[in-house]
Amino acid sequence: MEVEQSSMESQQKKFALPVDSEHKATEFRLFSAAAPHMRAFHLSWISFFACFVSTFAVPPLIPIIRDNLNLTATDIGNAGIASVSGAVFARISMGTACDLFGPRLASASLILLTAPAVYFTALASSATSFLLVRFFTGFSLATFVSTQFWMSSMFSAPVVGTANGLAGGWGNLGGGATQLIMPLVFSLIRDIGAVKFTAWRIAFFVPALFQTLSAFAILLFGQDMPDGNFHNLKKSGDKVKDEFSRVFYHGITNYRGWILALTYGFCFGVELTVDNIIAEYFFDRFDLKLHTAGIIAASFGLANVVSRPAGGYLSDAMAKRYGMRGRLWTLWVVQTIGGVLCILLGLMTSLSASIVVMIVFSLFVQAACGLTFGVVPFVSRRSLGFISGMTGGGGNVGAVLTQLIFFKGSRYSKERGITLMGVMIIACTLPLCLIYFPQWGGMFCGPSSNKIATEEVYYLSEWNSKEKEKGFHHASLKFADNSRSERGRKLDTSTRPSDET
Q1: pLDDT in tens, 435-494
Q2: pLDDT tens digits for range 43-83
Q3: Which of 129, 132, 358, 402 has the fewest CB atoms within 10 Å of its CB?
Q4: Same structural domain for residues 410 and 476?
Q5: Are 198 and 336 contained in the same domain?
């Protein structure tokens, strides 16, 4: 017993933060940059922020770009759809890449591969080339998946929602920050002496360079897991060399992942849609100046400073008291309220009322994103990356659908489209009630009365007998033990054996 205690103490001393049996941090210290946990957090959100800035650098300058390239409303709508459609499959691929190669290499590689598209935006000369650069730049949004995978690999169950919410939220902040950054950079370049049709092209070198530097920072300072990088851990035998077919199978056959992908399409997907259309909406509907419309539009994305992190924190807080059922109920309530506010936004006729409703709407829809990824880490242990990628890809599918249905061409006015989008949010959030974990329950049903419905049985079911004989399941066993907190305070007290330490 003394030997075990001494071993635990020596492991704790390896890390600046307290850790569990998987060496995941059990505390989240925002103002720390300690390796590896908090350093991974800061590298992940900054790099995702850079990708968001690059992807949405176009919308605040659309009034200038459309005049230069003679773009129609349909051209702009198609390009907006292209900017988020590419990341649908990129996010699923990123999830699998994280499972097999680790979040560090997967993330940095994608960032470097998509950076040239941002540079080439300066060379766009037609509607087709404009659509293509937006399409390939949008692939970088798949770094969201590596961000969430990385946080789920570094932080334990009691704080994983907070870590995921802050990393994703502060990364998404780039969608609001770029509404301020790009008009400012454009104005500075124009004031230096460049004509406006040249100034907007030069401005794109700023987000492109930022994105490139963030990739090198990840490669130089990042680490995949608390104990090291995937390559070294596999080489030493400390990590299983998993098979793509098995990771894919256990991810694609878990219905909970499909439901979260659908619902995420109408919180994060709606956020992407609004990022694409909101500046132009205020510019055209209320006859505002470009800079003024940009500032108003920026407030939507900038709400991510607090909204998405608040969603992650709320998910963890509810789980401590009510377990997984608390996470699911809170997600449904918050996202449904977001849908109601979206309907109201489309009905507002005054500038001031529209701004107020838009800001409140942003708080709820972005909090729902954080709440979603409070649930995702518990769907699967073996296929965590794939489930994260599938859910993230669902967000992009939602963005494509809402833009294709409501904001492509002139079928609906933008205000009408926003209202209908709100109705769709409410309808597509309802399937959350179908998610059920045998060991924890669902929204309307408690955990199974079957005594074998435990965390160990749930997570070890992803490994066959031969794999268990080789010891491949040990990491899942540790995760199952550390996820007992999802029972909630009352259930955990009543079901945990009295002699358990």
Answers
A1: 999 999 999 988 988 877 899 999 999 998 988 888 888 889 999 998 998 898 755 544
A2: 999 999 999 999 989 988 988 999 999 998 889 888 888 88
A3: 129
A4: no
A5: yes
Taking the alpha carbons of 217, 219, 221, 227 in that order, is the dihedral positive or negative?
A: positive
User: What is the 8-class DSSP label of residue 240?
Assistant: -
> Is 237 part of a structural domain of the chain?
no
Q: How many domains does the chain have?
A: 2
Q: Which residue, 168, 154, 148, 91, is CA-closest to 376?
A: 148
Residues 218 and 101 in one domain: yes
Q: Which two tokens stand for residue 452?
A: 């074998």
| Percent of the chain clearing pLDDT 70 (strictly above) | 94
Q: Which domain holds residue 338?
A: 16-24+33-225+252-442
Both 153 and 214 in a single domain? yes
> Quick one: 329 and 478 in the same domain?
no
Query: Which of 442, 466, 482 marks a domain boundary?
Result: 442
User: pTM of the prediction?
Assistant: 0.81
Residue ranges in 193-224 assigned as alpha helix (H): 196-203, 205-221
Look up residue 437 and give its DSSP letter. E
Residue 333 Cα distances to 115, 191, 248, angstroms: 38, 48, 31
Place of tokens 């029972």: 487
User: Residues 387, 468: contact at Cβ < 8 Å?
Assistant: no
The DSSP call for residue 441 is: E
Give the closest residue to 440 by CA, choosing from 27, 95, 148, 157.
157
One-character DSSP codes across 316-382:
HHHHHHHTHHHHHHHHHHHHHHHHHHHHHHHH--SHHHHHHHHHHHHHHHHHHHHHHHHHGGGT-ST
